[in-house]
Amino acid sequence: MRQWPDLIGQRFGMLVVIGQAASTATGQRRWVCRCDCGNERIVMGSNLKRGTTVSCGCKRYKNLEGQKIGKLTVIGRSDKYGSRGKRKTQLWECKCECGAITYKATDTLTNPDISMCQDCANKYAASKARASAGYLEGTQISKITCSDQHSDNITGIKGVYYDGKTGRYRARITFKGKRYNLGSFISKEDAIKARQKGEEEIFTPFLESLERIK
């Protein structure tokens, strides 16, 4: 009876044989191997001895462990896999700047714009959408530079409203989601002046800072 060599404990390249797996249907012997990267793989004994298989496959790919890509720091290869069509690809375990752990394939890690956890990606997408709509620092630039008033404003002046209960004119201004009441006035002209002063004190410095950034 033919005696097969015991390969357990032997090293082949980056692989160390740690156990025997079930043989193939044709009787070819297979071995469980642990790669230096930590992954385990079943390998044909003939491939080990010929030197055609010397790693779990990680040797073919760039090692990203420890690298900072986008918002993610790569911790190392995980035991999780993602689908790429009909094939499976091993995922990297990563830590996002926000502290969340996420798993990414190599092709998504190499793109800094999407190298982040899902929660940060959602916030990033919302931020881009707001920027495309003209928002900056919580303010829509087109609105503070536009003089159009609300449809229910009968004064014809943006930020100046007539209070029918008191018979007075009110001036107010909204900036970065916060409303500033600028006062209540007997005359419409005084309310307009208060609104103009509010724009000079609040809007003008902000718009000037944007011009300096450009």
What does this structure look like?
The chain is 26% helix and 34% strand. The strands form four sheets. It has a four-stranded antiparallel β-sheet with strand order 1-2-3-4. The protein has a four-stranded antiparallel β-sheet with strand order 5-6-7-8. Strands 11-12-13 form a three-stranded antiparallel β-sheet, with helices on one face. The chain has three domains: 11-59, no CATH class; 62-132, no CATH class; 135-213, GCC-box Binding Domain. With 214 residues, the protein is α+β, with helices and mostly antiparallel strands. The model has no long low-confidence stretch (mean pLDDT 79). The termini are far apart.
Summarize the structure.
This protein is α+β, with helices and mostly antiparallel strands and 214 residues long. The protein has 5 helices and 13 strands.
Descriptive key words:
214 residues, alpha+beta, GCC-box Binding Domain, 3 domains, 4-stranded antiparallel β-sheet, 26% helix, 34% strand
Q: Provide the CATH architecture of the largest domain.
A: 2-Layer Sandwich
* Terminus-to-terminus distance: 83 Å
Structural class: alpha+beta
Work out the helix count. 5
Using the CA coordinates, give the radius of gyration: 33 Å
Which band does the percent of strand residues land in? 25-35%
CATH names the topology of the largest domain as GCC-box Binding Domain
> How does the major sheet shape up?
4 strands, antiparallel
Shape: rod-shaped
Q: Give unreliable regions as ranges.
A: none
Give the CATH class of the largest domain.
Alpha Beta
The topology string of helices and strands comes to EEEEHEEEEHHEEHEEEH
- Strand segment tally: 13
How many domains, as an integer?
3
